[in-house]
Specification:
The complex is a heterodimer. By secondary structure, chain A is α/β, with parallel strands linked by helices. In chain A, strands 2-3-1-4-5-6 form a 6-stranded mixed sheet, with helices on one face. By secondary structure, chain B is of the alpha/beta class. The chains are: A alpha/beta, B alpha/beta.
Chain lengths: ~190, ~425
């Protein structure tokens, strides 16, 4: 089983991100279970969602405490939330940022991880360029596919199109492709 | 069709496939996505001859469903938590009148203190109202149980609650097979009421009944539940013929062959329990589990058979009868009254506290070693409890317990979004 935890703020689409991830996995014939951190959500407050991926039925219903990957939609959370809690040194880290790990103040921490397991992608900037709004989900999902190898880019694109039909979906696919290239090269 | 979707959305689609004629809706977390989903399908013209009625309260929601059902319409509603309490009088009326309404409960705790998270206290508060209560282990089973619920309710003319864990199932996004209209039509015949208010053939429903007949009316309600004990597995078997998968029934046993310690639970926690059982079996422990799908009627004979070889029965339950302990465990003790098998109560997951594999394993191992008390609260913070007891002893005007516990934990109260 592969477990992902996504950190963001209320209104950024944290729950949608986990759902998108689960759809992409489903399209590959995998079992996937996406769920939010349950509770009273408020705009701007730190929010967490989870996604489990497996080749067999997922029966487990406990929260994810030891993720294999962490996706951070909002780097300002690095100062206020222990976003890396439970992550092993062979795990994956993807951050929505154009700043370097030094600038983010986590260079020493991420140095413990294999270099190709850790990546920052300016997903919001890519979304602004391609979609016209700072909606980082599609680009982050592609970045996750690139660094983790858990998903094929084709199923990421199909999942985006399924969740956002029409022109909005295509614009998100363009942002996702750009992010995939950046993450794959990193 | 197999799809990746939210539990609530899949249930909404299943309800629509059952061709309801009246859906009454009042929002309450975590059930809201279900009636929103049904509402969207009705508005989009996907449900023929269906009236979607926004009502002013849960009491009105079930009252309107009662009127609709008595007038011969297939009626549906959904609620949770305080909403179920608020409709309480109508809950008993629907059962007493024998109206085959189907209602989803998105299981949630009951305040005070206010808590929007999952446990089973809401459904348990109505366990003896005369409704049939089915608990879904997975979102697939939630979908399937709703389809079976309409058939069961209408055959017996008895209302059915389908209980699914709030958030844990309602808000989980996973692989669910949502059947086709043809499959559902092949399984669920049109509603043919046993009693119906018809101006052409007028009679009254809900007359006053005095001591001369009230016991007999009640006895027949009990007898109807006993009929349901036979019909639930039969309907499950027909369902399997049409849809090709096992869903529903009275209980599900998991690796109970040769098991000395058997865990028993309702609902989604059974998934986590199965993972624990697999892990412990790998390590050589003789453990198994039983999931109760039908809590009312209570399948005493089936549980007796399933638990026959056990030396320890550990009931993991998401509700508490203060002053007694476990509600489900008490029911199981009654079923096992002719044996000497100890039945332990583990109160777990109250108000949304996560039930983890490691904590479950600990209690199952403790039971096997004879170290489990009769009533145990899973992961209870003893320090917080003792601190509060001590604090409250020191002054008469000790103030509210809940707020003081939060303050001691270094947290402030959150304002819930109901």
């Amino acid at each position: 089983m592969f477990q992902v935890r996504i950190h963001g703020r209320g209104g950024q689409g944290v729950v949608t991100a986990a759902e998108l991830l689960s759809i992409a996995a489903f399209l590959e014939g995998k079992h996937a279970q996406a769920f939010p951190s349950f509770g009273s959500e408020r705009m701007g407050a730190p929010v967490v969602s989870f996604c489990r991926l497996d080749d067999k039925e997922i029966r487990l219903r406990e929260p994810v405490t030891a993720p294999n990957a962490v996706i951070i939609q909002d780097p300002t959370l690095l100062q206020s939330v222990d976003v890396f809690q439970g992550l092993n040194c062979d795990g994956f880290i993807l951050i929505n940022s154009t700043r370097t790990f030094e600038e983010l103040g986590i260079a020493d921490f991420v140095a413990e991880f294999p270099a190709h397991h850790v990546c920052d992608v300016g997903a919001s900037e890519l979304a602004m360029k391609h979609v016209g709004r700072p909606v980082p989900n599609a680009a982050l999902l592609a970045g996750f596919a690139a660094i983790s190898g858990q998903l094929h880019m084709a199923s990421v694109e199909d999942a985006i199109r399924q969740k956002f039909p029409g022109a909005v979906g295509e614009a998100n696919v363009a942002a996702a492709r750009a992010a995939y290239e950046i993450a794959a090269a990193a | 069709m197999l799809k990746q979707t939210e539990g609530s959305q899949a249930v909404a689609e299943a309800i629509a496939l059952c061709r309801p004629e009246v859906v009454c809706a009042y929002p309450i977390t975590p059930q809201t996505h279900i009636v929103e989903g049904v509402g969207a399908l009705v508005k989009a013209g996907k449900v023929e001859n269906c009236e979607f009625i926004n009502v002013e309260s849960e009491f009105a929601a079930l009252s309107v469903a009662i009127g609709a059902s008595a007038a011969g319409a297939r009626a549906y509603t959904a609620t949770a938590s305080q909403g179920l309490l608020f409709m309480g009088e109508a809950v008993y009326n629907a059962a007493g009148l024998g109206l085959p309404i189907v209602m989803t409960i998105g299981n949630r705790a009951i305040g005070a203190p206010i808590n929007i998270w999952n446990d089973h206290t809401d459904s348990m508060s109505m366990k003896d109202s005369g409704w049939i209560q089915l608990f879904a282990e997975t979102n697939q089973e939630a979908v399937d149980l709703h389809i079976q619920a309409f058939r069961l309710a209408e055959e017996l003319s008895c209302p059915v609650m389908v209980c699914m864990d709030g958030f844990i199932l309602t808000h989980a996004y996973e692989r669910i097979d949502v059947p086709s209209q043809e499959e559902v039509d092949a399984f669920l015949p049109p509603y043919d009421p046993i009693q119906v208010l018809d101006p052409a053939e007028p009679y009254s429903i809900g007359a006053m009944v005095g001591p001369e007949a009230f016991t007999e009316v009640r006895y027949l309600a009990h007898e109807k539940q006993l009929q349901a004990l036979r019909r639930i597995p039969e309907i499950g078997a027909v369902f399997k013929d049409v849809f090709g998968r096992q869903s529903g029934g009275l209980i599900h046993s998991y690796r109970t062959e040769g098991a000395e310690t058997i865990a028993v639970a309702l609902g989604s926690v059974n998934g986590t329990i199965k993972e624990v059982i697999d892990g412990m079996r790998e390590d050589g422990a003789a453990v198994g589990s039983v999931s109760i799908c039908s809590f009312r009627p209570f399948p005493s004979a089936e549980l007796r058979a399933a638990l026959a070889g056990a030396k320890h029965v550990v009931v993991i339950e998401k509700s508490l009868a203060p002053g007694l302990g476990g509600i489900v465990a008490s029911n199981i003790r009654l079923a096992l009254r002719e044996t000497t098998v100890p039945v332990y109560t583990v109160i777990a997951g109250l108000g949304g506290r996560p039930i983890t594999m490691s904590s479950l394993r600990e209690v199952l191992e403790a039971a096997g070693n004879g170290r489990l008390p009769e009533v145990q609260f899973l992961d209870l913070d003893h320090g917080a409890v003792e601190h509060e007891i001590l604090r409250a002893k020191q002054t008469r005007r000790a103030g509210p317990t809940a707020e003081n516990i939060l303050r001691n934990l270094g947290q402030s109260a959150v304002v819930g979004n109901e």
